[in-house]
Write a structure and sequence with these properties.
Length: 195
């Protein structure tokens, strides 16, 4: 099949990798939630050879992710497992790290909430969750372009941009926000640690 392609992934994979190299250093097994096209996993796994990278997404996206892996396999990059928040159980595996990019604003609010609760529940103490995407701060958009993006997301039936405070509430005191890194294109990487 023709590989799906995201230009945004191509643009953000370099800056995100720098964050992951630092924060996933103590981790050995990463679960990626919402792998999308698969471009992130294919780029990150070979650059983080000390860990295993497990892709996951809704089953409909697996063929595309597998097409990327077929072209660029890596010993530590695992083919996607079915994980749709709200439908499937937490995947099997001793994950001490979780990565998810651009998913919280696509999910419905109750799914984004469940994602925070599941990560908070399933990570071991000291486990790391790196969450990338557009987020609001104290109820405010961080740019006019994010305001327009949010409007278009909601018009299309997606959940919309989430507030960092709301995510923190949903993490029910089990995840501590240790870094809020400003990234290119008005995005953030949120680094959460299980306490
Ligand atoms: C905008 S794409 C981002 C894909 C990729 N992470 C990236 O940054 O390019 C949103 C992803 O979230 C996934 N997604 C949406 N709702 C989900 C849910 N309830 N559970 C798991 N994944 C979900 C979609 O299948 C899709 O892969």
């Amino acid at each position: 099949m023709e590989k799906p392609f995201s230009q945004a992934c191509e643009n953000n994979k370099g800056p995100i990798l720098e964050v992951l190299k630092k924060h996933f250093r103590p981790c050995s097994h990463i679960l990626e939630i919402g792998s999308g096209t698969g471009q992130h996993g294919v780029h990150f796994a070979p650059a983080l050879p000390h860990l295993i990278w497990q892709c996951s997404d809704m089953p409909g996206n697996h063929a595309g992710i597998n097409a990327w892996i077929d072209e660029a396999p890596a010993h530590n990059l695992k083919r996607p497992v079915a994980f749709t928040i709200g439908q499937h159980p937490w995947p099997k595996g001793d994950f001490d790290g979780v990565f998810s990019a651009n998913t919280a604003h696509i999910m419905q609010p109750q799914e984004a909430r469940l994602m925070m609760e599941l990560v908070a529940h399933n990570l071991p103490k000291g486990g790391i969750f790196c969450q990338y995407g557009p987020f609001n701060i104290d109820g405010r958009y961080t740019s006019d372009s994010n305001r327009s993006f949010d409007e278009s997301l909601r018009n299309q039936g997606y959940g919309g941009i989430r507030d960092i405070g709301e995510l923190q509430d949903w993490a029910v005191s089990k995840l501590q926000l240790v870094e809020r890194l400003a990234m290119p294109a008005n995005n953030f990487t949120l680094v959460w640690r299980k306490v």
